[in-house]
Amino acid sequence: METLNDNDVNTKIEARKRTLNKNEQFIVLLLMPTVMLIMAFFYDTPSGLIKGLNAIRLSNDVLLADYLVIAGTGATLLNASLVTLINIAILKKMDMKPNGIIIASLFLLMGFSFMGKNIFNIWPFYIGGYIYSKVHNIEYKNVIIVCMLATTMAPLSSVLVVSLSSNYIISLAGTLAIGSFLGFIMPAVSSQILMAHSGYNIYNMGYAGGFVSILVFAILRTLNIEFERNSVVLETMDYGLLGFLVLFFLLFISLGFVFNGFSFSGYKKLLGRTGRLVTDMTRLDGFALTLVNMGSLGIISIIYVIVMGGVLNGPVIAGILTVVGFAAFGKHIKNSVPILVGVAVASFFIAKDASTTDILISALFGTTLAPIVGEYGMIYGIVLGFLHLSLTLNLGVLHGGIHLYNNGLSGGIIATIFVPMLDALKKEEKDALRE
After folding, report:
1. Among 81, 157, 198, 396, which one is most buried in terms of CB atoms within 10 A?
2. Does pTM surpass 0.85?
3. CA of 361: how far to CAs of 169, 301, 322, 334, 336, in Å?
4. Dihedral pair phi/psi, residue 260, rounded to 5°
């Protein structure tokens, strides 16, 4: 009987691996929003969906705007699918190939289309990015990802269009102008802010947009433009959505396994990456293993929510899909789970209840600090969880909820302070050893 050594096994696995071209990769990315689109019509009638989309249009979208409550499941799925499909169409029109940050951005848009982003309020930031590309004589494709991420301030569009003037046309024009200006400055602001945390906060736009939103919110308050924050979220489990997410995450794992030559070979190497920006899993480990990583973190995120006693409402689904998206851009089990555990432990001291939406999304979005765990060790996940939960629960008052990536702002502040502190302690340890 023929026996195979490790080299023979690896050779056979490599021979079976399926390299997907960019069109095939886009087909994989189209699966989830396409099924969402179909599901929307099973949840509601066409007239009900239109009514739900109108309810989304009229909402102020500030944190935490749970579209599942505001508009119903069908309209929410329709909104999420349309936002994602339109952005995929834009990327394909620009002849861009899916990579880590593109996948992360698409899933971020999809997730936040359950709580704050919609087909009505995101476009001013794209216009601003387009103007930026023309002024600086660069291709629009070079800033389109920044435009997609800059929609963290999408609630501002919803707030301004009903607050600037009693004349709707004037309000709409003012909203487009202000949103476009913010979209125009974000490429430069986000690039500059990256240096502050040295790549240890994966949600860099959350940090950059947070500071801009704080300034904008202060100006709005000075001008006596007031608005209420949303606090009503879905409190019952939608088992249809639960099944949908579980099946898709298992599908990602299965597809990755098949495309990787019916093997998980190479995944251990992926788990060894720190996740520090820029860690593009699609470039470093391949599209197939990226799918495995995305599906694995998706399943773990759902298990975490259920174990903590939570439900899948709009904000929680946004958190889960964001984790899944950024599993293509730095996150994996080893550098993310310690933070989930850290927030869970911290919640029993701070809030006494780990099942509330605020705590759950702090844990899920808190994985923005995964690179610190990847660089310095899993034990710091507990410390980071406590710091992140403490900070994120108190930051919303600074930007009034018009900044959706609140956890990215918290993560940026922690990374900016915590990483230099760890480096200083390491230097002291080295100095002590020399003596």
Report:
1. 157
2. yes
3. 37, 10, 10, 19, 14
4. -90, 25
Distance CA 68, CA 116 (A): 11
| Burial (CB count <10 Å: 0-12, 13-18, 19+), residue 272 | exposed
**Position 245: which residue type?**
L
Bond from prior residue into 311 cis (ω within 30 degrees of 0): no
Beta-carbon count within 10 A of 303 CB: 12
Place of tokens 């500030």: 62
Phi, psi of 216 (to 5 degrees): -65, -45
Give the Cα separation of 209 and 204 in Å (integer). Answer: 8
* Tens-level pLDDT at each residue, the chain (435 residues): 445 555 655 665 666 677 899 999 999 999 999 999 999 999 999 999 999 999 999 999 999 999 999 999 999 999 999 999 999 999 999 999 999 999 999 999 999 999 999 999 999 999 999 999 999 999 999 999 999 999 999 999 999 998 888 898 999 999 999 999 999 999 999 999 999 999 999 999 999 999 999 999 999 999 998 888 888 999 999 999 999 999 999 999 999 999 999 999 999 999 999 999 999 999 999 999 999 999 999 999 999 999 999 999 999 999 999 999 999 999 999 999 999 999 999 998 887 788 999 999 999 999 999 999 999 999 998 899 999 999 999 999 999 999 999 999 999 999 999 999 888 877 655 454 445
Q: Which one, of 417, 352, 350, 334, lies nearest residue 389 by Cα?
A: 350
Number of Cβ within 10 Å of residue 377's Cβ equals 12
Q: Give the number of residues written for the chain.
A: 435
- Residue 212 CB neighbour total at 10 angstroms: 22
Sign of CA dihedral 280, 283, 285, 290: positive
Please state, in angstroms and rounded to a whole number, the distance separating the CA atoms of residues 125 and 242: 32
